[in-house]
């Protein structure tokens, strides 16, 4: 369990049942390698340019700011590396703030064949590309990606003009992703540590 960590370099987490509270993680490309297993990020700041959250973990990001620094090339928040329909991995972002400069940031791209990414109840700034999602120049992945959105708000959340890769979830479809049960969190997530006075 990490609390209040401030990193000016990349972070790789592959251990199971890891939590991060109030951490600031700054990088450029590949800021957080959310490699594999179950993780929970809450009240954090993660900053980068391209694929700055990537890997094949099964992770829940809650009330975390994702700040994209504009670059001359493409900017992408997530590159999730799920490789098959049977692989139990996903990145879910709930009540997050998507901030940053520029105007062409993609929420995620199909780095591998079966990425699973959901943004729910999040506030998306004007830096988010109106298409939102990208097949990484692999049109054959259009049928295998699982990109979803649910009840987001802000100038970058308008579903008009969104890529057909993304699905606007119904309440019933979104429900399994909006709980700690997604990562079996009720079995291992402890309350965040409180500072001693």
UniProtKB/TrEMBL annotation:
User: A Pfam family for this UniProt protein?
Assistant: Pectinesterase
* GO aspect biological process, one term: pectin catabolic process
The EC designation for this entry is 3.1.1.11
Keyword Hydrolase appears in the UniProt entry = yes
Pathway(s) where this gene product acts: Glycan metabolism; pectin degradation; 2-dehydro-3-deoxy-D-gluconate from pectin: step 1/5
Residues forming the catalytic site: 51
Q: Which residues form the Pectinesterase catalytic domain?
A: 10-185
Protein location: Secreted, Cell wall
For this UniProt record, the keywords arranged alphabetically read as follows: Aspartyl esterase, Cell wall, Hydrolase, Secreted
Q: Which GO terms describe its molecular function?
A: pectinesterase activity
Q: Superkingdom of this entry's organism?
A: Eukaryota
Please give the start and end residues of each transmembrane region: none
Q: Reaction catalysed?
A: [(1->4)-alpha-D-galacturonosyl methyl ester](n) + n H2O = [(1->4)-alpha-D-galacturonosyl](n) + n methanol + n H(+)
Chain positions covered by the region annotation Disordered: 148-170
User: PANTHER family from the entry?
Assistant: ACYL-COA THIOESTER HYDROLASE YBHC-RELATED (PTHR31321), PECTINESTERASE 63-RELATED (PTHR31321:SF87)
Q: Please state which protein family the record places this protein in.
A: Belongs to the pectinesterase family.
Q: What is this protein called?
A: Pectinesterase
